[in-house]
């Protein structure tokens, strides 16, 4: 086996990202089940006083560490690997990437202090007029800027590679990683403006009030494409790695995969108003336009589903699978990395359906701010993304450390336990939402619970307990792998599925950046520009800060 | 450069099409169910 060799330093650098991600997952995942238990009437928060003072502080820790920190660190580490391995060259400026990484670490630690001190119990959406300690906003800013700096390092590396390979197609895993990085750099402008022009000066006392409507608009400029920042790295693995792992499969269509990534770049930012359907300050026409654009993202999503499943079908048939669907059983389910990602993909089907319901201008009225929404995003970020990342780490950590994966059978069981726990948890959250149960509420304390909610609230607790077991199992497997005395006989093979059609035959316009980048920026200006201009022109920095915890 | 097998040319992703058809039908059923809940709650004027 001859594959591109990463240096020990590069492997360590990627490993630091994964370590930070997994530590964040460990702490954040402790609080997730506590929310679920509270819903079921088993409130453990009183036992955590004075360390943790409330349900909302726990919810903030869970959201920030699991949705923001675990994902961002894992993604930046995985993308670093993809850029280096895909382009078969070292980073152009390793120091720059290291600076970015350590900025992120300092940012997390800076934000963690006020969160743990109960001075920033504002949930991971940090909507004003809830007001946090300035260090919370400074910390988040450092995390975002640090990720930008790492991204600039990727772009410099790509520019150097392009200079040396002017006529080659960008290798897919590097291509997907660069598009993901660019999407992140564009979409985080919203939250950067929100924090730097409003929340930070407000929390420092430099301005007296805040405009919650404008702040929410900035937030959702970032908030929805954030979902694609989470998902696209999982898609890179599903497209270009999973088919190989699942049975020696190939990527069904390199061209379709590249087109899907470009469409995600163009379409995933200018649609944030679908999170603000019930906000009074946004005219219905803009909400409708954003609704239509949200539905347009369904096309690259379906293209992804088609290409990935077709690639898996090819692998299953190559392993002797026959019939319309019996090839599914021939996939390499005993490999924990495969099992985790296949199970993540299965639940993502339902996450996609729930997402379309959320995005519908009419039926959103049934679901808005109900338990349906966390039920939905636990299928997306907490399963499609998180379970895929767990699956990726089952080969990536042995690759980086040279240690054998500890007890692969237990890793496979971990994936199945997560799958089962999430079905129970998420299904009951969806149903509770349809019955009218609100989100962001400690329902165990609510005096208005109708009897028909009780069995579902109990299931939320059961699902949370099962997910907790799975999370602990993941941490045990990771720890025992990192400290395993058994080393791999030879370097772990990086699973790269070649495309059925030579990528060199893909259209050149699918490897050209400028039309897609200009297109993305133009669409943002067209569908956000007029409304943002109006909101900024009529800005009302009048709302005082609230501390309700 | 990718090697193209004969199997690649003969491969027809029929199972994939069936899975996606099941997905679309499920999507329509779930969406319509929520829509009926919306209608059932009545209009607000």
Overview features:
heterodimer; A: 549 residues; mainly alpha; Cytochrome C Oxidase, Chain A; 69% helix; B: 45 residues; 2 helices; rod-shaped
The average pLDDT of chain A is 97
> How many helical elements of chain A?
17
Write down how many β-strands of chain B occur, each being a DSSP E stretch of 2 or more residues.
Answer: 0
CATH architecture classification name of chain A = Up-down Bundle
Q: Gist?
A:
The complex is a heterodimer of chains A (549) and B (45). With 549 residues, chain A is mostly helical.
Describe this structure in words.
The complex is a heterodimer of chains A (549) and B (45). Chain A has helices spanning 8-39, 45-48, 55-87, 94-116, 134-164, 172-203, 212-240, 242-247, 254-267, 284-296, 298-318, 336-359, 364-367, 372-401, 408-434, 451-482, 514-537. The longest helix of chain A has 33 residues, at 55-87. Chain A is globular. Chain A has a single domain (12-439, 449-537), classed as Cytochrome C Oxidase, Chain A (Up-down Bundle), CATH 1.20.210.10. In chain A, α1 (8-39) packs antiparallel against α16 and α6 (172-203) packs antiparallel against α7. With 549 residues, chain A is mostly helical. Chain A starts with 7 loop residues before the first helix and ends in a 12-residue tail after the last helix. Chain B is mainly α and 45 residues long. In chain B, 71% of the residues lie in helices and 0% in strands. Chain B has two helices and no strands. Chain B has helices spanning 6-10, 14-40. The longest helix of chain B has 27 residues, at 14-40. Chain B is rod-shaped, with a radius of gyration of 21 Å. The N and C termini of chain B lie far apart (64 Å). The mean pLDDT of chain B is 87. The interface between A and B is medium-sized, with 37 and 24 residues.
């Amino acid at each position: 086996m001859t594959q591109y060799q990463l240096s020990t330093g590069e492997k360590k650098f990627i490993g630091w990202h994964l370590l930070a991600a997994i530590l964040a997952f460990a702490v954040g995942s402790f609080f997730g089940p506590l929310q679920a238990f509270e819903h079921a009437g088993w409130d453990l928060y009183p036992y955590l006083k004075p360390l943790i003072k409330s349900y909302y502080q726990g919810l903030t820790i869970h959201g920030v560490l699991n949705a923001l920190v675990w994902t961002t660190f894992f993604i930046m580490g995985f993308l670093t690997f993809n850029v280096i391995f895909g382009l078969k060259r070292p980073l152009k400026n390793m120091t720059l990437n290291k600076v970015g990484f350590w900025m992120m670490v300092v940012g997390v630690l800076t934000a963690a202090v006020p969160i743990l001190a109960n001075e920033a119990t504002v949930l991971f959406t940090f909507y004003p007029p809830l007001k946090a300690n300035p260090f919370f906003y400074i910390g988040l800013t450092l995390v975002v800027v640090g990720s930008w700096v790492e991204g600039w390092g990727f772009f410099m590396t790509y520019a150097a590679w392009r200079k040396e390979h002017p006529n080659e197609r960008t290798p897919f895993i590097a291509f997907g990683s660069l598009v993901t990085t660019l999407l992140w750099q564009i979409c985080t402008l919203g939250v950067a403006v929100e924090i730097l022009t409003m929340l930070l000066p407000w929390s420092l006392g430099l301005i007296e009030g805040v405009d919650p409507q404008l702040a929410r608009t900035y937030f959702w400029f970032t908030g929805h494409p954030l979902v694609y920042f989470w998902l696209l790295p999982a898609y890179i693995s599903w497209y270009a790695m999973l088919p190989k792992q699942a049975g020696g499969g190939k990527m069904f269509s390199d061209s379709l995969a590249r087109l899907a990534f470009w469409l995600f770049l163009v379409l995933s930012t200018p649609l944030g108003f679908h999170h603000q359907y019930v906000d009074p300050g946004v005219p219905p026409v803009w909400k409708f336009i954003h609704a239509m654009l949200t539905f347009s993202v369904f096309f690259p999503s379906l293209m992804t589903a088609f290409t990935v499943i077709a690639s898996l079908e090819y692998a299953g048939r190559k392993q002797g699978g026959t019939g319309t669907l019996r090839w599914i059983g021939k996939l390499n389910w005993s490999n924990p990395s495969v099992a985790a990602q296949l199970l993540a993909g299965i639940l993502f089907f339902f996450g996609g359906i729930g997402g379309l319901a959320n995005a519908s201008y009419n039926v959103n009225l049934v679901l808005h701010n109900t338990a349906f929404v966390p039920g939905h995003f636990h299928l997306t970020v907490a399963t499609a993304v998180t379970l895929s990342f767990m699956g990726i780490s089952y080969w990536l950590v042995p690759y980086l450390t040279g240690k054998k994966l500890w007890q692969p059978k237990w890793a496979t069981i971990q994936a199945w336990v997560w799958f089962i726990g999430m079905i129970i948890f998420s299904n009951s959250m969806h149903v509770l939402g349809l019955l009218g149960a609100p989100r962001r509420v400690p329902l165990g304390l609510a005096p208005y619970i109708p009897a028909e909610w009780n069995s579902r609230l109990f299931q939320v607790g059961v699902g949370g307990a099962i997910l907790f077991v799975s999370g602990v199992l993941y941490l045990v497997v990771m720890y025992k792998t990192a400290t395993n005395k058994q080393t791999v006989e030879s370097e772990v093979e990086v699973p790269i599925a070649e495309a059925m059609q030579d990528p060199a035959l893909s259209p050149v316009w699918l490897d050209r950046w400028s039309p897609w980048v200009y297109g993305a920026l133009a669409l943002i200006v067209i569908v956000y520009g007029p409304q943002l201009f109006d909101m900024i022109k009529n800005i009302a920095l009048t709302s005082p800060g609230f501390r309700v915890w | 450069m990718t090697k193209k097998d004969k199997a690649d040319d003969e491969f027809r992703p029929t199972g994939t099409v069936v899975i996606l058809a099941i997905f679309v039908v499920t999507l329509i059923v779930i969406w319509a169910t929520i829509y009926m809940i919306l209608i059932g709650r009545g209009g607000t004027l």
